[in-house]
Amino acid sequence: MENWDEIRTAYQVARLGTVSGAAEVLGVHHATVIRHIDALEKRLATRLFQRHARGYTPTEAGRDLLTVAQTTEEQFAQLSSRIKGHGETVQGEFIITSVGGVTGLLVPVLAEFQHRHQAVQLRLMTDMRIFRLDYGEAHVAIRAGAAPEEPDNVVQPLIRIRYGLYAHRSYVEAHGSPASEQEFAGHRFIAAETEGSRAPFFRWLRDKVAPDQIVFRSTEPAAWNEALRQGIGIGFLPAWEAAANSDLVEILAPRPEWDSPLWIVTHVDLHRTRKVQAFVSLLKESVRTWPQCA
Amino acid sequence: MENWDEIRTAYQVARLGTVSGAAEVLGVHHATVIRHIDALEKRLATRLFQRHARGYTPTEAGRDLLTVAQTTEEQFAQLSSRIKGHGETVQGEFIITSVGGVTGLLVPVLAEFQHRHQAVQLRLMTDMRIFRLDYGEAHVAIRAGAAPEEPDNVVQPLIRIRYGLYAHRSYVEAHGSPASEQEFAGHRFIAAETEGSRAPFFRWLRDKVAPDQIVFRSTEPAAWNEALRQGIGIGFLPAWEAAANSDLVEILAPRPEWDSPLWIVTHVDLHRTRKVQAFVSLLKESVRTWPQCA
DNA sequence: GTCTGTTTGTGCAGTTACGCACAGAGAAAG
DNA sequence: CTTTCTCTGTGCGTAACTGCACAAACAGAC
After folding, report:
1. Rounded to whole angstroms, how far apart are CA atoms B146 and B262?
2. Residue B28 CA, nucleotide C21 C1', distance (Å)
3. Given an 8 Å threshold on Cβ–Cβ distance, is A75 in contact with B71?
4. Which residues form the HTH lysR-type domain (chains A, B) (predicted)?
5. Between the CA of A263 and the C1' of D7, what is the distance in angstroms?
6. What CA–CA distance (Å, rounded) separates B98 from A185?
7. Cβ-Cβ contacts under 8 Å, B56 against chain A
């Protein structure tokens, strides 16, 4: 039962009773319809229609095909409208993967997105490994560092996060506060786990301090944050996050060279969809209300 | 949602995850698969798959299509086996149309047919008008008289019914029995309603007797029979039917010129089916057990 | 009866779609 | 890092399919 098009032609013939009518509905020549029927009957080794001068009358097999194909056409029509509507309306699952450090900024945007589009189910994936937009693992990704250059991904700049060097009040009370990087000797620092971290401020830090000065390492940005609050050492923090916590003391003010650019990355196949576009535009819009960052 | 073949192609791609695999299953070149997907996505204005070097990953729309097309394929497969089996097994409705006079011979054959093939539902149509084998009104027809010459119908001779002229004993006791057609004057006859009856014995009768001698006319052969038994007049009867009734007196013995040939007529589109063949062969076989007729 | 409209059926010409070959890109293995 | 394999993607020639035109047959109207 290969060649579904022939089934479709046979269905129209069975429905309308004439080859000519079916040809008109299908938008093909009636000769094509005849050939389709002939081929299908030959393959099934059964007559589907009785031919006469007034048209084609379906046999029992033809009537059977009629009912089956009728539901098929309905199913396909529903599928079509569902798919077409799917691209235009914002609904269904929506998967975002992002770097760990920006969840505090991202979640309010997601809340607003959910509020605007009640029919979406949100999934935020922040994990060690980089989720691939290929393979359909996520609809959009928030990436940090150098601009991603993966093919088939459309990359848009989102914002530059200003990073400063901060410590908890308790740390400053215990160890003092270095006025510049020349006074870093003897101080304790917090950094990322991976040596080859792409964050510019971590590369800067690696040049300025000895490895044994970094007393706390973690892959998880939330852990850096917590370690900082516990007074374990001096560490980088987004300026907006430090400003929200009065217990944190600014060691060194943010510098442009420490800025971490954020990127919105979407797969080219999904970038045109209304759902993705709705989220991206909302995200860009929300970013403008973050004056502490830009 | 036209072009069901493209849906089928997309279904296989969604199922297998790769263009190459789908191409192999479908028995086409992988370039064709790519073109089908491209065309379908363009028509739906939605991406069904995310393309990457390892294959095609279905999007939500693609997964939706997958489930719909999966049931479609199952439905078509069942339809196919049903239709193919339909041609080989004897089951379903079986419609016979026949001239009215032979039901007494036909019904036993139908009973045997039903006994052999429990899965058939028999319908015997004996009506004024001639049912057309075109339009699917019947599977086989038993026709009488001159050989039908309708196109697209396969005509086979079945048997020649011997007709004689009979009357009920009560009629003979009241009016006597003519020894030959020369003594028909004053006798009463039973004939068909239609003037242009194709039965040869009625044409013969029309030449021998005056119109007002025909005192009973009916379109229904069973009515002739009954009228004969009631002693209304002299009428033609199949020899076998008269022989079964001892109250009937033979007026004139059957003559070859009165023979009414019966024909088995089937539509060419249905003639090859096993169901029709089974019935036709059974009918021919049964006919040999009617020695009174031939 | 003739005429008209509709339908099926077929040979021929054009066009679309297919198969083929090759290129390019990742991913996995050594 | 290099090699190898698999899979996708595209230009080109061919083959299959489609559209066209015409013929034939039939039903209905007049």
Report:
1. 9
2. 16
3. yes
4. 1-59
5. 30
6. 114
7. none
At the topology level of CATH, where does B92-160+260-287 sit?
A: D-Maltodextrin-Binding Protein; domain 2 (3.40.190)
Q: Does B135 touch chain A (CB under 8 A)?
A: yes
State what percent of residues in chain A have pLDDT above 70: 96
Q: By mean pLDDT, which of A54-58, A281-285, B105-109, B288-292 is the weakest?
A: B288-292
CB contact under 8 A, B68 and A61: no
**Nearest chain B residue to A91, by CA:** B60
Q: What is the pLDDT of residues B147-174, one digit of tens each?
A: 777 777 888 999 888 899 999 999 999 9
pLDDT band at residue A218 using 50, 70 and 90 as cut-offs = confident
Can you spell out the DSSP letters for chain B? ---HHHHHHHHHHHHHS-HHHHHHHHTS-HHHHHHHHHHHHHHHTS--EEEETTEEEE-HHHHHHHHHHHHHHHHHHHHHHHHHHHHHS--EEEEEEE-GGGHHHHHHHHHHHHHH-TTEEEEEE--SSPPPTGGGS-SEEEEESSPP--TTEEEEEEEEE-EEEEEEHHHHHHH---SSGGG-TT--EEEESSTT---HHHHHHHHHS-GGGEEEEES-HHHHHHHHHTTS-BEEEEHHHHHT-TTEEEEE---GGG-EEEEEEEEHHHHTSHHHHHHHHHHHHHHTT-TTT-
Residue B183: pLDDT over 70:
yes
- For the B163-258 domain, the top CATH level (class) is alpha beta
Report the distance from CA of residue A101 to the C1' of nucleotide D30 in Å, as an integer: 90
A220-255 pLDDT per residue, tens: 788 888 899 999 999 999 888 888 888 999 999 999
| Each residue's pLDDT tens digit, B8-36 | 999 999 999 999 999 999 999 999 999 99
Name which of B5, B48, B269 is nearest A50 (Cβ-Cβ): B269
CATH assignment, B4-88: 1.10.10.10
Task: Assess whether the region A4-88 and the region A92-156+262-287 belong to the same CATH fold.
Answer: no
- Strand C neighbors by CB, 7 A: A 18-21, 30-31, 34, 51, 53-56, 134, 151-152; B 5, 27-29, 31-32, 35-36, 52-54
**Selecting from 3.40.190.10, 3.30.450.20, 1.20.58.2190, 3.90.550.10, what CATH number does the domain A92-156+262-287 have?**
3.40.190.10
For residues B216 and A247, what is the distance between their CA atoms, to the nearest angstrom? 122
CA distance B248 to chain A (A): 45
Residue B8, phi then psi, degrees to nearest 5: -65, -40
Q: What is the pLDDT of residue B196?
A: 59
Query: What residue ranges do the domains of chain B occupy?
Result: 4-88, 92-160+260-287, 163-258
Q: What is the pTM of this model?
A: 0.73
